[in-house]
Amino acid sequence: MKKQLAMLVVLSAIGGAAFAQGGALAQAPASTDPVVQMRMAEREANAKYAAALLQAYAERQSKVSAAVEAAVKDADAKGKDPLVAKRDAHAKAVKATEKDYEAKLAALKAEHKAATAAAKKKGAAKG
């Protein structure tokens, strides 16, 4: 029991120190180094791009899922094989949403490329 209590105290002391350090790092002022600023801008652009990609994928998947669920319900009502209906509906929904999804990805990629190029140009101008 004493060993567990001692271990708990040690771990909480280490965790508290690490937490305090993390808080201090988060509150540190922004660097004035142009390379650091450029990398931070690139990281921000990458994070926005990743979030937008996930959003686009989620939107497409919701459309596909809705089509598949409707097809399975219809197949059940008509007494047909729901697995075949699910497979066919999935293929049709993916094909139907492909052009819109690809266009959205292309626009996101172009936006990301422009944002990273701007960050690099800004960093090169300062450095």
Describe it:
By secondary structure, the protein is an all-alpha fold. It has 2 domains: 1-30; 33-126. Helices cover 91% and strands 0% of the residues. The chain is built from 3 helices and no strands. The chain has helices at 2-26, 34-78, 82-126. α2 packs antiparallel against α3 (82-126). The longest helix is centred in the middle third of the chain and has 45 residues, at 34-78. The mean pLDDT is 84.
Topology diagram in text:
Elements: H1 2-26, H2 34-78, H3 82-126
Helix pairs in contact: 2-3
Largest sheet entry:
none
pLDDT averaged residue by residue: 84
Cα-based radius of gyration, to the nearest Å = 25 Å
The parts where pLDDT drops under 50 for at least 5 residues are none
What form results from the Cα inertia axes? elongated
Overall helicity:
over 70%
Pattern of helices and strands: HHH
Distance between the termini: 59 Å
Can you tell me the number of structural domains? 2
Beta fraction: under 5%
Number of discrete helical segments: 3
- The number of strands is 0
What is the structural class?
mainly alpha
